[in-house]
Amino acid sequence: MKKEQLKIEGMTCEHCIKAVQKELSKLDIKIKGVKVGSADIKYDAAKVNKEQIAAAINEAGYKLVDA
Asked: In whole angstroms, how far apart are CA 19 and each of 1, 45, 48, 62?
């Protein structure tokens, strides 16, 4: 399992947090926590890749910032 703290651009409120949680929950990942500007997740890199995670964040209306 791979742990990551994602940096997310454009989040400003509770609605943003819920939107990101909703989209990430569609993937096979464990969401440790989401707050304005970031998300802590744990996932199996053999099942989910970074592009899928970025796409889910984009679907929620935000942008994943490459660390």
From this structure: 24, 23, 19, 9
Per DSSP, 10 falls in state S
pTM above threshold 0.90: yes
In the predicted model, what is the mean pLDDT of residues 38-55? 96
SS3 16: helix
* Among the listed residues 33, 13, 11, 3, the one whose alpha carbon sits nearest the alpha carbon of residue 21: 33
Distance CA 4, CA 66 (A): 12
Spatial contact of 65 and 57, defined as CB atoms under 8 Å apart? no
Which amino acid, residue 42? K
